[in-house]
Amino acid sequence: MATFPVCSAACPPAGLGGCSAGRRPGRRHAGPADPAAQCEGLRVCRHTSPQENKAPLPQTSKQSCRPRWRWCQRAAGVRRVGMNQVAGLDNPIWTALTSVQAPLAETFGALKRFTPAVAPFCAVRHAGDSVAGADGVRAGETVYFVGAFPALPDNWTVVQEAAILQMVYGGEAYAPVGGGAMRVLDEGDFPDVLALTGLVYPEYFRPRTASLGNYIGIHDGGKLVAMAGQRFKPQGYREISAVCTHPGYAGRGYGRQLIGRQVRDIAAEGAIPFLHVGEANPKARALYEKLGFVMRIRIPFLKLVT
Fold first, then answer.
1. Is 304 in contact with 153 (CB distance < 8 Å)?
2. Angle CA(136)–CA(138)–CA(141) in degrees, nearest 5?
């Protein structure tokens, strides 16, 4: 049974505005059933899942696509990803440390963690796993879990337990990229990265966090004034993180520009961007939604001192 594409071949590959023919983005268009033929030049297209279609839908622009399905064009065809069926993102740190970022993992029984100089994040495979005797966590160290929590030893103190929003990119095209000059940050930039994150993003950064790679910055007269990077890297996904701007440069659209660059770079690798944002940060959530991200789940977050 045919599925009807959302965007025509005339849609521009950059920007989130949608179709140059004036059709609303995210709506079904009448036309050929072949997504590759209809969405030439697009990197991410929306289509309904054939499994969800029990009967053909009429070819009309008024029929809305089901937004939880994303079709990603590849040279060999079209790959479908169901956003509500990505179990690995329910426990993103564990998934990252057992796939792409396994070389950065330290393992102590049921506990896995990033090397302390890289990131203060730990994970267990299943909620309630015992981490008693996990000598890889130093006494008095502050660590974080996202997703599954272990059974906590008596000497570990909970500082904060909350839920954060996990958002996955679902735009039809790359986010717009323009404005200030951007460049990839390297080891020579690490002191400036630590200085900037110390101002606006101090809790999660460590001396070697930027070595996770893919950090992009904007400079003004040699001064790093804005940046964004990639942190957790579960197989097939990349988390956009550390989106921050120096307070003296706020309001210039640097965050939007950097997120757009990260979306473009991640899509070029054949992966899907996602990110996390606090429930108490509606301004950031609104920005991410404008850039094409959609909420997937509320995910548990735990900060504790060991």
1. no
2. 125
CA atoms within 13 A on the CB side of 25: 19
Q: Which of 118, 2, 113, 6 is nearest to 67 (CA)?
A: 6
- The stretch 13-42 carries a mean pLDDT of 36
* Nearest CA-CA partner of 276 in 236, 306, 231, 246: 231
Burial class (CB in 10 A: 0-12, 13-18, 19+), 254: buried
Mean pLDDT of 127-134: 89
127 phi and psi, to 5 degrees?
-60, 135
The 10s digit of each residue's pLDDT in 278-298 is 999 999 999 899 999 999 999
Domains observed in the chain: 1-83 (no CATH), 86-306 (3.40.630.30)
Cα–Cα distance, 224 to 275 (Å, whole number): 22
Can you tell me the distance from the alpha carbon of 177 to that of 256, in angstroms, rounded to the nearest whole number? 8
Phi first, then psi, for residue 56 (nearest 5°) are -60, 140
The Cα 238–Cα 196 span in angstroms is: 22
127-134 contacts, C-beta under 8 A, 24 or more apart: 133/109, 134/108, 134/109, 134/110
Q: pLDDT of 260-281, one tens digit each?
A: 999 999 999 999 999 999 999 9
How big is the chain by its Cα radius of gyration, in Å? 21
